[in-house]
Design brief:
By secondary structure, this protein is an alpha+beta fold. It has 17 helices and seven strands. It has a five-stranded antiparallel sheet, with helices on both faces.
């Protein structure tokens, strides 16, 4: 039993190029951008411009990637009399410790006219449905196709997720790309007047899990099917998940490889933080959240790269269990129910049922596993300060951060060539800026031609001008 693929949920993301209708997309992006401009200028609540909105946040995968899917219905009072309802479903794929990976805007026409029915992550539920029905079906389909779980989230929490991601991008000198991405991000810079959507997640006090077995079952819950380090270990060893039985050499090499890189060191505590927040959504599983935060605390005492930080992660039972998930645990076989209609999320359910039954029968972890750590020991909470690990507390800021000001610092023309990432021309002079849209830059005329002809800027430049 175990996963036969190292694929993470982030490897299947839709993009707006899949709609194959740039004219429709351009019109929708422009309309949403106009509503946003009004909202930002008049500083009125979100609901004055978007009469209805919903949001769902996913658990993260082994790369630290998660999805935020939202529905925004444009207020018909601001439209011309007789105009059809306009609404959009948006997605933002972010990494818990890094940048925005991708965004997407899907207009209601794309669902009601069947434009998306042939896409791999979209199931056609037929015409004539409400946008709430299309939204529910879309979220369910993404959950099944990515093997991550989704929960309903208040707007204020989603706003914080986006703002924190922008602050990380600013710190790491990452950029926002194009009008569509900027428009989706701006949707999370407003204020809501609805009580539910004003709620912030209140994390519980960290507390130790009863034992390692309990943590093992948490890490095998369906929403955490891809909460592992299989992609890292495939890169290291070259074989697939479940093909090899772990031994002490594999175990030590896995730890060394994961912890030799500061990017991966940042990822682990950020994943635990996201998981704790996720478990506090729609049901508020305080107990599970407290266990995850407890395991995270020793990693936050010192900066990333510090020897004590590396040592804390090496001795983390969570990381050791994540490593073991990649190998063959020699558990034997049990006849289990499968859920083919639910795709990868169904595989996660089967996986969880298997390990729950295995633990109940044997009273132990899979026999081939190597786990040296136990539940983390307590640490002095007073010693955890902003001088510690930069993967979370230092970088993530106040939700009231000026979104527009932060976004201005992330525009491409101030940072790097859209083709090669260079920050200066070969001669050392400033970058060339596209004279039409002024939203992208290049180190040389040749790279500008490449981006125009085959890099998608010809279409994106038109959308930027429409806005």
């Amino acid at each position: 039993m175990g996963k036969k693929s190292r694929r993470t949920s982030s490897s299947k993301n839709l993009s707006n190029s899949d709609t194959k209708n740039p004219a429709l997309l351009g019109s929708v992006v422009t309309t949403v951008a106009q509503y946003l401009k009004l909202a930002e200028e008049e500083k009125l609540p979100l609901e004055r411009y978007f009469s209805h909105h919903r949001h769902s946040v996913s658990s993260c995968d082994g790369d630290g990637a998660f999805n935020l899917i939202s529905l925004f219905v444009l207020n018909p009072r601001l439209m011309l009399p007789g105009a059809p309802e306009r609404s959009v479903i948006t997605t933002v794929c972010m990494r818990v410790h890094d940048n925005i990976r991708s965004t997407m805007i899907l207009p209601n026409d794309a669902f009601q006219n069947g434009m998306l029915q042939k896409l791999p992550l979209v199931e056609d539920i037929g015409p004539g449905k409400t946008m709430d029905e299309y939204y529910d079906a879309f979220v369910q389909n993404i959950q099944n196709s990515t093997g991550t779980g989704f929960r309903k989230a208040p707007y204020a929490h989603c706003k914080k997720l986006v703002n924190d991601c922008l602050l990380r991008m600013k710190t790491k000198k990452k950029v926002l790309v194009g009008k569509e991405e900027r428009t989706v991000v701006r949707l999370f810079g407003l204020e809501s007047e609805e009580n539910f959507h004003q709620q912030q997640i209140q994390l519980p006090q960290p507390a130790p899990a009863p034992d390692v077995d309990t943590l093992w079952l948490v890490l095998n819950r369906p929403e955490h099917y891809f909460f592992h380090v299989s992609s890292d270990l495939h890169d290291l060893f070259g074989f697939e998940c479940g093909e090899v039985v772990i031994d002490h050499e594999y175990f030590e090499r896995s730890l060394d490889y994961i912890l030799e890189d500061e990017y991966r060191q940042e990822r682990l505590p950020a994943m635990l933080n996201h998981a704790a927040n996720w478990h506090m959504l729609e049901g508020s599983e305080e107990e599970v959240a407290s266990w995850l935060l407890w395991e995270r605390r020793p990693m936050m005492l010192h900066p990333v790269g510090h020897l004590d930080t590396v040592d804390a992660m090496r001795n983390s039972v969570v990381l050791q269990l994540m490593i073991n998930k990649f190998f063959n645990g020699q558990t034997g076989e049990l006849l289990m129910h499968t859920f083919p209609a639910m795709n990868l999320y169904g595989s996660g359910i089967t996986n969880f049922l298997f390990y729950t039954r295995h633990l109940s029968i044997t009273g132990r972890l899979p026999p081939a596993f190597i786990v040296r750590a136990s539940v983390a020991e307590g640490v002095d909470g007073a010693s955890i300060s902003d001088s510690g690990n930069i993967s979370a507390e230092n970088v993530e800021g106040n939700v009231s951060t000026n979104l527009e000001r932060t976004m201005r610092k992330l525009t491409i023309r101030k940072t790097s060539c859209a083709v090669c990432g260079a920050t200066r021309s070969p001669s050392g002079s400033r970058l060339l800026v596209c004279s039409r849209c002024e939203s992208v830059a290049y180190c040389c005329a040749e790279h500008q031609k490449i981006h125009w002809k085959s890099g998608g800027h010809k279409q994106q430049c038109t959308l930027d001008l429409l806005g």
